[in-house]
């Protein structure tokens, strides 16, 4: 289920670009879209956590001392700092360079996550994993370069790289936290933290424009529910089962999903180069599965915290 959850997450995240274009066509301002995305997601997830608690599934399991408070604050910080900063760097880069180049630089994060996980002792390199990482990276490059010419801008590339570094830290911290916090609770706290940060920014920069047509609200709701609630919850649940390296490699399916959905919904053409890139990304999924089918050492049993099994 771990790889399937990460692939579901990547598909839902990949749909956000298409849904965002549909929202922009209805006159939804980008800053309003980003803030409402997190506010709606935080409210929905908060309600889901409350319902789960009533059904006997506590938001945070019993922990000694002040550990529960530390875990909650860490999850909020993931949203306040990590998610909000990554989104800010990403959209700032989009103002300066092509979306394809932003995504191409952003998707250096699987390499950074894998290297960092190995250096931190959380993971180890195996031939199938290295092959999967190379296939996913090359495939992502082909999918994005196949979209056409890319305009280079040093500041824009720097901002996109900052987004990749921030996302790397977000995944690594999230991996250590998700082992001790249920995915639903973790996602709710992250979305709440991001909503708070972006709300403060909106207040400091002129407020929020909510004069939006009904269809615009529909697309905002789709982005909040599909590309945020489902996508983030599925990612953390998949991360819990696969570990950071595998999750980051499988996440490279996101641009493939974006290109395919854009072709279906918006009528954009899928070039042969992009088709080859998509096939390479899909091959990385098979390579990761080959690794997961190899016999596990005694400490690698499912359910053991990542730091203890790697």
From TrEMBL:
Ranges for the EamA domain? 2-144, 156-288
Give the location in the cell.
Membrane
Query: Gene3D superfamilies annotated for this entry?
Result: 1.10.3730.20
Bilayer-spanning residue ranges: 33-53, 73-93, 99-121, 130-148, 154-173, 185-204, 216-237
Q: Name one Pfam family in it.
A: EamA
What membrane topology does the UniProt entry give?
Multi-pass membrane protein
Primary subcellular site in the record, as a coarse category: membrane
**Presence of keyword DNA repair:** no
Q: Does the keyword Transmembrane helix apply?
A: yes
List the keywords (alphabetical): Membrane, Transmembrane, Transmembrane helix
Fetch the InterPro entries from UniProt.
AA-Vitamin_Transporters, EamA_dom, EmrE-like
Coiled-coil residue windows? none
Query: Could you say which protein family the record assigns here?
Result: Belongs to the EamA transporter family.
Official protein name in the record? EamA family transporter
Q: Which organism is it from?
A: Nocardioides aquiterrae
Q: What is the lineage of its organism?
A: Bacteria, Bacillati, Actinomycetota, Actinomycetes, Propionibacteriales
């Amino acid at each position: 289920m771990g790889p399937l959850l990460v692939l579901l997450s990547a598909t839902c995240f990949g749909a956000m670009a298409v849904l965002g274009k549909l929202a922009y066509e209805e006159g939804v301002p980008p800053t309003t879209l980003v803030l409402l995305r997190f506010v709606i997601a935080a409210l929905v997830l908060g309600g889901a956590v409350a319902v789960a608690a009533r059904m006997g599934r506590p938001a945070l399991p019993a922990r000694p001392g002040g550990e529960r408070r530390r875990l909650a604050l860490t999850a909020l910080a993931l949203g306040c700092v990590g998610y909000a900063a990554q989104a800010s760097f990403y959209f700032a880069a989009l103002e300066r360079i092509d979306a394809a180049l932003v995504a191409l630089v952003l998707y250096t994060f699987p390499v950074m996550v894998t290297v960092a996980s190995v250096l931190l002792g959380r993971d180890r390199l195996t031939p199938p994993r290295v092959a999967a990482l190379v296939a996913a990276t090359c495939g992502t490059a082909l999918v994005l370069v196949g979209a056409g010419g890319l305009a280079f801008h040093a500041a824009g590339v720097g901002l996109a790289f900052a987004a990749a570094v921030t996302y790397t830290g977000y995944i690594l911290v999230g991996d250590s936290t998700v082992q001790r916090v249920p995915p639903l609770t973790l996602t709710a706290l992250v979305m709440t933290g991001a909503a708070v940060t972006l709300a403060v920014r909106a207040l400091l920069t002129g407020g929020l424009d909510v004069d939006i047509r009904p269809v615009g609200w529909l697309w905002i709701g789709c982005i909040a529910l599909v590309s945020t609630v489902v996508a983030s919850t599925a990612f953390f649940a998949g991360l819990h089962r696969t570990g950071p390296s595998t999750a980051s490699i499988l996440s490279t399916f996101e641009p493939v999903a974006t290109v395919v959905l854009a072709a279906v919904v918006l009528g954009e053409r899928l070039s042969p180069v992009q088709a080859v890139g998509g096939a390479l990304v899909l091959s990385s999924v098979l390579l990761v599965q080959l690794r997961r089918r190899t016999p596990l050492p005694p400490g690698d049993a499912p359910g053991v915290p990542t730091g203890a099994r790697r």
